[in-house]
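Open question from group meeting: does this chain pack into something compact, or does most of it stay loose? Before anyone orders reagents, we agreed to write out a predicted structure and look at it together. Recording both the input and the output here so the notebook holds the full record.
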Amino acid sequence: MKVTIVSSVPVFPVIGGNRARILEFSKAMRELGHEIQFIYLPLRRQHIDLEAHEQFFGGDNFNHLHNGGVLGSICQWLRGELRSKLRNALQQYLGLRGWYYSTLDGSYNPGWSIQIRRLVKDADVAIVEYVFNTRAFEGFLPGVLRVLDTHDAFAERHLTYAKKGLRNGYWISLRAEEEARGLLRADRVMAIQESEATLFREQLAHSERKPDVIVISHFPSIKNRICDYSKNDVAVFVGSDNPANRQALVNFTLNILPLIRMKIPGFRLLVAGRISDFARSFDDVECLGFVDDAGEVYREAPLSINPMLTGTGIAIKLLEAMSHGVPSVTTQTGARGFPSCYQVGNIVVEDEDCVSFADAVIRLCSDERLRSEMGAACHEAAQAWRSGQLRSLQECLES
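Structure tokens returned:
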């Protein structure tokens, strides 16, 4: 089948969890035998590698939409960026509750639907990334299967972050009725985890026409398992630069790291990914910056930490470590959405239990054999997880 993905988030460079999801999602569809077309919506100014997109999707199957010349680009900047920044500033400094919310189509350029209509005449399936881009379904002919890849639940999203002290880390928050309006534009809705699927079904409970809500999570690319677990007294934190990761790193360095170094004075913490720029302000942390191959990091530190205190969706960093056969010490928030059968090979502790987190790191840092055994278990769990997601995706596209 010809599957068209419409996204305001580019894939390359892969510098965030949402980009990694779309990349592995595309690979999974290719593995199932489908042809992929990618349409990029220039919603905001962000780093995009056009050449890498053309190489991966093919020149004929990668389409970069435009905003309509200089005037259109200015209007899109006002619509997609300036208004958002003003809203965040007002709600932060004036405490205006209504300014926490975005409108469903507030950043969507109506001209995109016209451009999409010209590009997708042979599409069998339309997949739109994020509920706030669902107006893009207007560009597809009747009879095309419309699938929404939600990535996350955005209804009242700011409340989850505000409870953890992050008033501006939620990105976008919608009123529940606005999110439901976007869900109703699809024939099928892909939720990342069961709790979100339940929420979406509740939002749609009183609608006459209900799209199917299906749980399809991330597709970790299974790597060769790390074979050398001999490096003791070292762990790695991998992440993009966002408020939730910053909070996790601050909490770890202030409240957990000193407990570890009381028992292991020479303990090394490596930090990789774009969060490294933030981490450079901390003493005794080794910052590696952005890395193209996470395997290089895990070979230097065959133990991952995932001390998240805030977050929604599935933690891709946990799946990434598992796909390399690297065990993790994680908070419950960091393991959100993972059924217990897939948590094997990782140690899960309560979010605020710094002592237990430190004890788990100390235990794994000092035991090469345990790291190897747990690494084998989580590598096997990652393979089982991916196989299950592939089956669910095939059923979603063909049933």
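Observations to bring back to the group:
The chain has a mean pLDDT of 89.
Residues 2-216 form a domain with the Rossmann fold fold (CATH 3.40.50.11930).
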